[in-house]
Design brief:
This protein is of the alpha/beta class. It has helices spanning 15-28, 43-47, 59-64, 94-101, 104-112, 132-140, 152-170, 195-208, 221-229, 243-258; strands at residues 2-6, 33-37, 74-75, 82-85, 121-125, 143-149, 177-186, 188-189, 192-193, 217-218. Helix content is 42%, strand content 17%. Bound molecules: adenosine-5'-diphosphate and magnesium ion. It comes from Chamaesiphon polymorphus CCALA 037.
């Protein structure tokens, strides 16, 4: 299993968008894929239409190991290859557990070991804060993808995420490498890119190096349509808009082959 963490230390950076659409694309390509919603705001769980009954096992129980791991994994109706470990409001209660464990960054990695051969890919939607959950998620990852809005706020989010990554790598709390930055909501008016988008993306390239910045996700209502209908952009008839996710997918498939 190759575990991809989608992380960016602010809200509204495209984490849940990228996680969901990447999960759909991977499963459409026939890869057995596990999505993990690691944000207590549980947007991914909601967007995927999973309506949990009270006391259903979620990522909280998975991390605490208080139920069988299999019971935290739910099949999704849109594709037989796609599964979800959901989150709910209670997930924040795991922060103390992780902090007290002394090895917070290693916990989720350990918990997922039994299913490492069951799934080809795992995509984790990380929380927006530099929290214990965020650290255990990055600790579980093989690779990290950072979406960042093509704006001043997005640039700041990228800087904080890179800083966290180098801290965690520096103390051996993760083996994960950052494989790509995806500028999100890149704004164009006709053939002209907005000044803010252009300078934010230029700043990102200067910060991390040009080769790490993937093609941007354009500002577009069609992405919201895809999310609402739980479909890929090409299934909706907009393959051009899917290009950045395809580039990411190819990169991920190559890394998986080499693993
Ligand atoms: N291409 C796009 N253009 C404009 N808005 C988008 C696009 N893709 C997604 N969105 C919307 O942007 C918002 C923020 O994205 P989201 O993935 O939720 O960010 P995060 O998970 O980092 O908080 C969501 O409400 C989503 O519907
Ligand atoms: Mg989100």
């Amino acid at each position: 299993m190759l575990t991809i963490v989608v992380s960016s230390l602010s809200g509204g950076q495209g984490k849940t968008t990228v996680s969901m659409l990447l999960g759909l694309l991977l499963s459409h390509r026939g890869h057995s894929t596990l999505l993990i919603d690691a944000d207590p705001q549980h947007n991914l769980t909601d967007w995927l239409g999973l309506d949990l009954e009270q006391n259903s096992p979620t990522l909280l129980e998975c991390i605490k190991s208080s139920v069988e791991l299999e019971d935290c994994i739910y099949p999704l109706t849109m594709n037989e290859n796609l599964f979800l470990i959901p989150s709910d409001d209670q997930l924040d209660n795991v922060q103390d557990y992780l902090a007290n464990s002394g090895i917070g960054a290693m916990v989720l990695k350990r918990r997922l070991e039994p299913i490492a051969k069951t799934f080809e890919f795992c995509v984790i939607d990380a929380p927006p804060q530099r929290s214990q959950i965020c650290m255990t998620v990055i600790g579980a990852g093989n690779v990290v993808v950072i979406p960042a809005e093509a704006s001043v706020k997005g640039y700041g989010s990228l800087i904080r995420t890179i800083d966290l990554m180098s801290n965690l790598q520096g103390v051996g709390a993760t083996q994960a490498q950052t494989i790509g930055i995806i500028p999100f909501r890149d704004r164009w008016i006709g053939a002209n890119q907005s000044q803010e988008s252009r300078s934010a993306i230029e700043g990102m390239k200067e910060e991390v190096g040009e080769e790490l910045v993937l093609p941007s996700i354009r500002e577009s209502e069609r992405y919201k349509q895809a999310i609402n209908q739980q479909k890929t952009l090409s299934a909706l008839g907009y393959p051009d808009l899917e290009y950045p996710l395809e580039v990411l997918l190819e990169k991920i498939e190559l890394i998986k082959q080499d693993k």
